[in-house]
Amino acid sequence: MSSTDQTPSVPATMRAWVRRRRGPASTALELSTNIPTPTVPQGPSSSDVLIRVSHVSLQFSSEMTMKLLPASLPPLITGPWIPELELSGEVVAAGEGAPAEVRTPGTHVIAFQSIPSVIAGRGVLAEYVRLPGGNVARIDASVVDMAAASGINGAGSTALKMIRTAGVHEGHTVLVNGASGSVGSVLVQLCKLRGARVVGVASGGNEEMVRSLGVDEFIDYRKHDPLPAYLEQHYGDKPFDFVLDCVGSQALFVHSPAYLKPEGAVINIGALESFSRTAFNVLLNRWLPTWLGGVPRRYVMFSTPPRRDDAVYVARLVEEGRLRVPVDSVFDMEDAVRAYERIATKRARGKVVVKVRSD
């Protein structure tokens, strides 16, 4: 432990959700009570941080991964396969090589595991995690909502990358599809902070929530189906600068010339039509020439691993009260399977969170 010569007292074992077989969360996951607790990082050679987990924000893609990957895949998967990517918690101990701001025990932090490590089953849905210091960021003690804080890394980093890739700024008009979701709800706020005019798309039941985020106009996609036809009718003469799609609607891109400026772009991070279909669409959308029927608009899709610098930036906005991470629901550790069921409905308004810490 870097700040004292004492080794902190941590239990030898901990609770963690472990995937025992391939399949949906309801049949694949089991709450284990005897997983070995990660060792305490010590000394100048270590830059790791041991964290007592408070809350874990679940990812929509987690259950897809559980269904696709075999339970055992040596040498990639060798030990207990623990899911999930991002968390909030407090520092237990840190090596002397960790960033100074996350070395003091008791410091409130947000953190994430790398995507390759999550795929290999070294996730964070556990009572304690040990992570590289570069994956850990301090949050001010004034941020008391640790459930919301647990979603800063994933939703915040993804939304920030979308608006930076697009170059959203004052004077732009953007369409945010999926404005009530975990990424879309943050995206709306970041666009407004940049001075853009935002049209948000979600179901009518989420209108009040989406309007509270600051959208200038709201569209109920259920009421206006098919959505592309409605957009052509109402925005054909005032096209968008960018379409930011958090759902993954291929039709939204195919028909975009009717409501998107020629120099604009559709930026998509959703996979509504399954991973395989989305992968095919990405190739089609990027490479099919217009003379063969390709869409004459730019299409962008990218991986969105969390970045510490992005998390720090978004965390500061949260601390300053300029941005909030909406939380749909919080489930106790014992009820994590119900949390996955909530995500599977595709109706969550913001993050679905598991409360790991019991006190």
Automatic annotation (TrEMBL):
Q: Where is the Enoyl reductase (ER) domain?
A: 26-354
**Annotated InterPro entries:** ADH-like_N, ER, GroES-like_sf, Lipid_raft_assoc_Zn_ADH, NAD(P)-bd_dom_sf
Q: Which GO terms describe its molecular function?
A: oxidoreductase activity
- Cited PANTHER family: PROTEIN AST1-RELATED
Indicate what this protein is called per its UniProt record: Enoyl reductase (ER) domain-containing protein
Species of the source: Achaetomium macrosporum
